[in-house]
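Bug report

Summary: structure tokens for INSC protein differ between web form and batch submission.
Environment: batch mode, default settings.
Steps: 1) Submit the sequence below via batch. 2) Compare with the web form result.

Sequence submitted:
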Amino acid sequence: DSSLWRNIHKVITMAFKGEDNLDSLPLPVQRMHLIQVDSVQRWMEDLKLMTDCECMCILQSKPISTEKDEQNELIISSQYSTCDNLQLLLKRAWIISTELTRIAQKLEKNRWQRVHSMTVRVNCHVRSMINEYNAFTRSSSEEMQQLEKLLIEKCSEFTAFTERCIQTEDERVLRSMKSCINETLTTVAQYFGQLIEMVLTHEAQNLLRQIELSDSVYVTESAINSLFSLTQEGTHLCRIIAKEGGVVALFKICRQDYFRCLYPQTLRTLASICCVEEGMHQLEKVDGILCLTDILTDSTHSEATHAEAAAVIAQITSPHLTFTQHLSNFLENMEEIVTALVKLCQEASSGEVFLLASAALANITFFDTMACEMLLQLNAMKILLAACSDKHIVDTPYSRDQVVTILANMSVLDQCASEIIQGNGVQLLMEMLFERSSSGNSAEVAACERVQQKSAVTLARLSRDPEVADAAVKLSCIPRLIKLCRSPTERNNSDSVLVACLAALRRLAVMSPDGLEDSDFQQLVKPRLVDSFLLCTNMEESFV
């Protein structure tokens, strides 16, 4: 009867509130609670799963409001920009893709209850994502609307399939339905991927249209900032922007004096897009390197503009890129670019500016010895060594990594040794062998390892000159190299640092054999390099 149901409701309420006092309840209800509390909890869990998905989505789309005359539709506050809305969309898309992956994992294990609950969640997220996107865009294409409809229908079908699975325990039926569910899951994922691709392409087109057509500095700046935010979401978005003509549109801005105040953020966005091959192709088509050269060599531009142009140069000359067809144009302008970058390093007012300029120079030195010869003629060695003594300019392991990369690549030149001696460079290399991370951040630790490795490589190369080798021995480089070889923690267990230190130690041992104890010579110098390497990698910390 109704009184019994009221008492049952009271039990459930008390259970959720954590109350254990059941004395006020009639005896039959007390007994039911003690015996069947697990069933009640199970019923509450099942209730969530059995809720009709359409109702959940409709409720989710209604705003909470105290005003009676407000419309019952999804409202996105006008204070949110296009960028904010896209961030919301991408966040929702990330949740959906994560859930789809988890559904596939649970389906593999036949966890039907979990599969169904997650399918309901995906259904709700998909509908919410579509509602949210349609609330801030007024120009979705017919093709997009059709795809939205297909996705919603397929999500509903997916939910219906999984609901049927939790209503049966017949293994034969479940096995037959599993293939249908797998197929539906694949279709949902495909439709979802196509929709996201279409939405992002549509938004990129809108932003680029604003950049190309607007004469307003404010509107153009807003569009460029939104475009930059999109590039930070990964290489896939950078490819979409590049394919839609993003590089062309941005270089058009960089060629108009009217938009000079927007050059820094425009160049920053270009650097992000040019991490993908499509961006490089576009850069080559619009003579982007010539434009960058003009900006770098124009002294009327601000330091911020020069620094961001250096960042683009650093990006397109990265030795990690597998596509290098654009470098033929770069070589034609290399002398002007290198000269401008050395000047920027010399006049840098902050660590960030120096880092961008030195990173570009470091990448350029990987091309061939011609770049290193240019740097030598421009007194770059002296400028870089002087900068390292200013802790406000070279203030991070990342900056020191760029400097020591340049030194290592320049050290192949015979003339480099005298420059190192004059600029007290051996002392700097010795200090770099002690590089350690202060924060423990993984990226910083990796940078410190590179600094140690490259400083050892530079010492090994330069120590073919007796004067450099003598200076290194006097500065106690040999004991430090031995320590790095024998102590894994000193080199952060890095094998690359170990190999570089063994090579440097062997070069110095040839020039100054008296600097080593017999045990060090027998273990670290006399054997084959591979044998010494294996010995050091198997050492326990207590050995030291």
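Above is the batch result. After comparison, the two runs are identical; trailing whitespace caused the diff. Confidence is low (pLDDT under 50) at residues 1-37, 49-80, 540-544. Residues 396-543 form a domain with the Leucine-rich Repeat Variant fold (CATH 1.25.10).
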